Amino acid sequence: MDLIAALESLVGDLETGCGRASSLAALEELRVDFLGRKGKLASIMSSLSSLPPAERPAVGQKANSVKERLNALFEARKAELEAQKEAEALARFDPTTPGRAPWQGTLHPTTLVTEEICAVFRHLGFDIASGPEVENDYYNFEALNMPPEHPARDMQDTLYIDERTLMRTHTSPVQVRTMLGRKPPLAVIAPGKVYRRDSDLTHTPMFHQIEGLMVGEGISMAHLRGTLTAFVRAVFGGHTNVRFRPSFFPFTEPSAEVDISCCICGGAGHVNGEPCRVCKTTGWVEILGCGMVDPAVFASAGYPEDVSGFAFGMGVERVAMLKYGIGDLRMFFENDVRFLGQFAG
Ligand code: DAH
Predict the structure, then answer these.
(1) Is the CB of 172 under 6 A from ligand 1?
(2) Whose CA is nearest to atom 6 of ligand 1?
(3) pLDDT tens, 56-100?
(4) Among the atoms of ligand 1, which is closest to the Cα of residue 291?
């Protein structure tokens, strides 16, 4: 066939092809087929060299104009298909669909429970006090009526920095530091980290405590009981019962441990006929230690003999575990967002 006619027929063929190409991918295939390096136009042009030299310029010019028209056809159809694709996407787009909520951090449950407990005591008139985590043996033990050979020191699994310096094993040293700096009457709570050389399922080397201290004229066990009952009911609910069991601490006399009715089984000892795993069917769980401040501790603080006061100390993780029914202490330290996210406000 005559090359000029062959070139011209390409235009009509591409027109038909473009009309049929219903996607951008199909159109691209068509473009390669016509305009690609091994395409129809190229194959016609490869026979240009077999023409007598005199005929070549005319065919060359025709080829150029055909190429332009092919390109124009192709671009026009491409624009059409692109516009169609966009219209389809817009038709699917629903501007009323709610967006994806951004990730938001939450306060750690230990922080939340500490803040909640502090708020309860602030409401009862207590101030917030604090003391160092790296503590002297004197404040951690001796001033709290635990002289060097006292057997209660063994119970505390102390982490020592040197002979006289240690990581505080409880928040009780803040009692002495507070009294050294303030005159009675006073009421403070001291939240903070404490450290023990202890690590297993139910113990971590660091955990949190909240210490309480109230000193004044005529402060009695009845004030202690009333204060702690108010605290327990504010944090665990108004129906919660409280009982005091006699106990021993070197820095209080008399001393007691406080149990609350189990918040998982409501004190019944069973949940749906199954033994309660939190209180082990007793209906009670221990929540804190307390007592009347021992005169020896007042003496360390240089307080007069006619003051009296009460003190208490509790573990924050323990309170959180009881309040939320968390079975494993390690949850507080693993920082698994699936756990932490459940406490989002
Ligand atoms: N410090 C004690 C402990 O860590 C807890 C405690 C008990 C604190 C009785 C007190 C208290 O203030 O009166 O085990």
Answers:
(1) yes
(2) 313
(3) 888 889 889 989 998 999 999 999 999 999 999 999 989 898 989
(4) 13
- Distance, CA of 88 to CA of 85 (rounded, Å): 5
Angle 59-63-65 from CA coordinates, rounded to 5°: 120
Tokens encoding 193: 């980290």
Six-digit token pair at 235?
């944090």
Please state, in angstroms and rounded to a whole number, the distance separating the CA atoms of residues 134 and 148.
18
pLDDT at position 47: 84
**For the chain, how far is it from start to end, CA to CA, in angstroms?**
82
Q: Which of 63, 92, 121 is the last residue of a domain?
A: 92
Q: Which atom of ligand 1 is nearest to the CA of 169?
A: 4
Amino acid at 344: A
Pick the atom of ligand 1 nearest to 172's CA.
1
Give the distance (Å) from ligand 1 centre to CA of residue 276.
27
Q: Helix, strand, coil: what percent of the chain each, to 5?
A: 45, 20, 30
The domain containing residue 253 runs over which residues? 109-343
- How many domains does one find in the chain? 2
Ranges of the chain with pLDDT below 50: none
294 within ligand 1 shell (Cβ under 6 A): no
Q: Is the beta carbon of 289 within 6 A of some atom in ligand 1? A: yes
Ligand 1 atom showing the smallest separation from residue 170 Cα: 4
Distance CA(132)–CA(185), nearest Å, equals 23
Last residue of a domain, one of 64, 92, 120: 92
How many angstroms separate the alpha carbon of residue 6 from the centre of ligand 1? 102
Q: Domain for residue 293, yes or no?
A: yes
With a 6 Å cutoff on the Cβ, whether 310 touches ligand 1 is no
Q: Are residues 19 and 122 in the same domain?
A: no
Residues 209 and 236 both lie in one domain: yes
